[in-house]
Amino acid sequence: MDAIVNKLPGKEENMLDDSNNKPTQAEAEEAVRTLLRWMGEDITREGLLDTPKRVVKSYSELFGGYEADPSDVLGRTFEEVAGYNDIVLVKDIHFHSHCEHHMVPIIGKAHVAYLPDERVLGLSKIARVVDIFARRLQTQETLTSQVATSIDETLAPRGVAVMIEAEHMCMAMRGVRKQGSTTVTTRFTGEFEKPENQYRFLEMLRH
Ligand SMILES: Nc1nc2c(ncn2[C@@H]2O[C@H](COP(=O)(O)OP(=O)(O)OP(=O)(O)O)[C@@H](O)[C@H]2O)c(=O)[nH]1
Ligand SMILES: [Zn+2]
Fold first, then answer.
1. How many Å apart are CA 198 and CA 202, to the nearest integer?
2. Residues with CB under 5 A from ligand 2 (ion)
């Protein structure tokens, strides 16, 4: 087979199927050189020689969420919680993402709660799920929904509540240039669709 073997940086064994048509590391670095030239830079100057390699390496980290599967993370649950069945809230989960329109950072925090149905999640797994989806190109609405849906579908709790507060650098650094504005999104499932549970969630966030 004459297919191009695409290798992910640092993951030599991880070959993707042809339909993904993932560019090679060399092609990605060349694309960075093209952008640098388009910006008016001299790509032969010393300070920029390793920049394409650094950018691609940095993108592998910033967009590492495409390679991660949230259900792997959420699969680890516990039952021994002495009958605890009230809200579990992890708040102020800081994240960095990038908007899919401009590929510019979205910086914010997520608050994630659920009402357990016998099983509970390791707390760090909630933050890991936020990170997996944040490390992809996003809209805030999609990120909010994806976090809620993945917990809902994998853990099958009585309900999930997600609130995200974030600043979009595409609104601060460019375009309309409004610094300091915060966008707030929420997604409620199951018993969190009831106003009294939404109220408790919001109250817990205030304290
Ligand atoms: N709903 C939503 N909009 C977003 C998000 N991130 C960025 N945007 C918006 O996406 C829109 C894209 O609008 P366009 O008119 O296609 O692009 P543009 O000319 O760059 O827009 P301006 O940012 O207004 O300069 C902008 O209004 C952005 O503020 C997000 O997470 N959710
Ligand atoms: Zn944007």
1. 6
2. 99, 101-102, 170
What is this model's ipTM?
Answer: 0.92
Q: What would the pLDDT profile of 117-143 be if each residue is shown by its tens digit?
A: 999 999 999 999 999 999 999 999 999
Would you say 98 is a known binding-site residue? no
From the list 141, 154, 164, 182, the residue with the least C-alpha distance to 93 is: 164
pTM assigned to the model: 0.89
Q: Are residues 120 and 42 in the same domain?
A: no
Residue identifier of the C-alpha nearest atom 32 of ligand 1: 139
Kindly report, residue by residue over 61-95, the tens digit of the pLDDT. Answer: 999 999 999 999 998 898 888 889 999 999 999 99
On whether residue 154 sits in a domain, the answer given is: yes
Task: Residue 193: give the domain boundaries.
Answer: 78-206
Please indicate if the annotation marks 94 as binding a ligand: no
82 and 182 part of one domain:
yes
Query: Which amino acid does the sequence have at 84?
Result: Y
Confirm whether residue 102 is marked as ligand binding. yes
Separation of 139 CA from ligand 1 center, angstroms? 9
Structure token pair of residue 107: 């910086």
One-letter amino acid of 180:
G
Q: Does the C-beta of 171 come closer than 6 Å to ligand 1?
A: yes
Name the domain boundary from 16, 36, 62: 62
The number of the ligand 1 atom at minimal distance from the alpha carbon of 99 is 6
Nearest Cα to 189, choosing from 159, 145, 163?
159
